[in-house]
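Sequence only, no structure available. Ideas?
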Amino acid sequence: PNGIIYLNAAKGFRSGGFNQVVDPSTPATFAPEKLWSYELGARQSFAEGRLLVEAALYYNNYTSIQATIVQSGGTVAATRNAGKARGAGADVTVIARPKSDLSLSATVGWNDMKFKSVSVDRRPGDPLDLVPKWTWSLAGDYTPALSDQMTLILHGDIGYTDQAQITLRNLPPGFKQIEKSEARTIANLRVGVGLGDLELYTFANNLFDANKVVNPPFGAFFEPIRTRPRTLGVGVRTRF
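Reply:
I predicted one. Tokens follow.
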């Protein structure tokens, strides 16, 4: 009565299409890409609902992957089907509510999906673009009553994202074939008061001012995209 076990299988696709370029090495059309996803999971509550645990194992089979390929001359890009990828992953979430005004949560995710075939721009073992292998997060909310009309609001969270890779093995000479983002840990904090349906709060996003590469430079994009710097502010929120 306090949990479920489930098994899910799903198929998705993205339609094929036409290339609007004139180049002898460019195929006129590209085929649909397809994904089969299989997931086995469980969700269980304990201690009269004060502890919730969710866990899932999944496996993805991704075929005829559509990719933007730079042709041999280095001046024309077109969509082509670039092989297949397969791999497993896991997600775990734990949510604890030891008191009515205190909530704590933790998550961890693992992904090991890789290309399994040789294509124009990929080799077996290359990971999917910008898909990190590990992620985790911790969060807490504390909302004690200060009076009949006022509630304290305390929220903090911290999250980790592993480095990830972009692979473009057929770029012209002089361009790097592999670029990577940087692993990063981002913390956020919010403090305020609740007055009925009204909340007044201050916040600090990226509290420790982490400066990491989220999207590396690749191809014609010469500058990386970095984490947004520390941001401080005040806010008002209402419900109606």
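The CA atoms of residues 70 and 77 lie 4 Å apart.
Hope that gets you unstuck.
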